[in-house]
Every structure is written in structure tokens, then in C-alpha cells.
Write a structure and sequence with these properties.
The chain has 186 residues and is mostly beta strands. It has one domain (2-181): Jelly Rolls, CATH 2.60.120.10. Helix content is 13%, strand content 40%. It contains 3 helices and 12 strands. 32% of the residues are buried. It binds fe (ii) ion. Fe (ii) ion binds next to loops. Fe (ii) ion binds at residues 91, 93, 141. GO terms for molecular function: ferrous iron binding; oxidoreductase activity, acting on single donors with incorporation of molecular oxygen, incorporation of two atoms of oxygen.
Amino acid sequence: MTSTALSPLAPARTDAAASTAPAGAAALAVALAIRTDLWADRVEYREESRWTSLLDPAELAPALDPSLHAELHDAQIWLLSWLPGQGTPLHDHGSSAGAFAVARGTLTERVVSRGTGSTPHQSTADLAAGRVRFFGPHYVHQVVNTLHDPAVSVHVYAPRLSLMNTYRIDDSGLVRIGTERAGVDW
Ligand SMILES: [Fe+2]
């Protein structure tokens, strides 16, 4: 496996100039997170790893406000469960933008973005049920259930998620350590 030192990262899309696409994904993620009747009976928890399930936009559309249908048409939607201690490595979402909303429990997100010199900027926040994060392409984060109760979240990606790069941080900065490709690695 090769390691690649990265060029400066694109910042998180949290400013007013951000594309409307991630904001639309956020609206969709929140709308789905609060509609527990659409997914609650599907959720499973797995001791061995996080549980994930793709949601079908066509099935969801009749239950959602029509203003979200355009966003829904282009989106890939995942429902995830997280037992205490389960989480992701540090990763991006390739060229996909998107959003995730916490529907149950609390998840801790660590965000890594461009810093000064070779030192990335890092921030960590606990996201309780009802919280949402949206992001543009190449957003790098790690999400973990650090608390004691199971958590559930809804993730929306547009365009569809095709790969995720994984990272570590060392003295040279943020270093890519792997790439997982849809249809090959998951
Ligand atoms: Fe992610």
C-alpha cells in the first residue's frame, strides 16, 4: 500500500458561498432522519461492524415534501447504525458532496481541513440526534460513536459515492493510506 502526501485540502462547505447542492443534501438528510416511520423497523445493529443499508429514493419520494424530489432523484442515501465504539477511519468521499444527519444517539465527528504548513486543522464535535453536517467534495472526517447508546444516522451523497480515500496524520501532514472503490471494496 502506498502513502501519498496530499496537496492542500478543500475546506468544509460551511460558508455562505457553498454550493447549494450540499445544502439540499442536508435538507434531505434531516427530512429523512425525523421520519423514523420510514426506516425504524429496518434498522439492525451488528456487533462485528457498523450496519449499513441503501434506501430507495423511489420508495421515499411519496413520503417527502415535493420540494425535495429533485434532490432525491440525484441522491444516494444510506442508513447506518453505530454501536458504542464503532466508527469510521479518517476518510473523504471522493468527488461526492453530501450530508449526514444524526437520527438517534450521538456521534462524534472529527474534521480535518487545510491548516498552516504541513499541520492540518482539526476540530471535533459531538452531534446529537437532530444535528446535521453538510460538505463538499474532498471533505475529510472521521465519525465514531464514542458514547454508551446505539446511534443511527442518514447519509446523502450526490453524485453517488464511488470511492472513499482513507487517511492518517503524521509529521508530513495528512497522508492518504488507501482507497476503497464502490463495487470492489464494499
Ligand atoms: Fe463520511
